[in-house]
Amino acid sequence: MSVLDFSDLKSTGHILKYNGEPYQIIESNFMRTAQRKPVIQTKLRNLITGKVMEYSFKFGEKIEGADVIKRKCQYLYADDEGGHFMDPESFETIVVPKALIADQIKFLKEGTDTSIVFFEDKPISLDLPIKIDLKVTETAAGVKGDTATGGTKPATLETGHTVNVPLFIKEGDIVRVDTRNGAYVERASQ
């Protein structure tokens, strides 16, 4: 069991254990008022459920660090059970429950390398790269002259995910997508 220092809470990204579950600090604000102990107001994201909560840590409060481990794995396929991944060193198949990765699976294609985050030896989430390149499999043809308005159109990617792209994107193009919000970033060089 690791114990976090009060000053560790000032920086975002630290992972701590709160009520037996792993939380990541996504915002923190150090506050000190006259004649009171310092307080750090935080926004915490539950790494299992994804829910965000606010909590104020008081100076001297015991804060337990969460032991999370990231393991590099390769995506195989998804089914009703969840996402199936292979550990490239042991060739062991790891199944991450669908409920935990439903928002992330739409960015993965067979053979994609990613990292699985484990908490107490159980997979809890995926650590995807911020941007992923995917091929456009279906989109409407752009009409000449429409590009002046800077409009967008829906495009279906090779994983089945639909994203709004600029009108100049056509089927077969490779586009870069932000995995944090699912939005189009740019056309990738082919």
TrEMBL record:
Keywords from the named record: Cytoplasm, Elongation factor, Protein biosynthesis
- Gene Ontology CC terms, in alphabetical order: cytosol
The record's subcellular location field reads:
Cytoplasm
Residue ranges of every copy of the Translation elongation factor P/YeiP central domain listed in the record: 70-124
What does the UniProt record say this protein does? Involved in peptide bond synthesis. Stimulates efficient translation and peptide-bond synthesis on native or reconstituted 70S ribosomes in vitro. Probably functions indirectly by altering the affinity of the ribosome for aminoacyl-tRNA, thus increasing their reactivity as acceptors for peptidyl transferase.
Alphabetized NCBIfam families for the sequence: efp, PRK00529.1
- Entry protein name: Elongation factor P
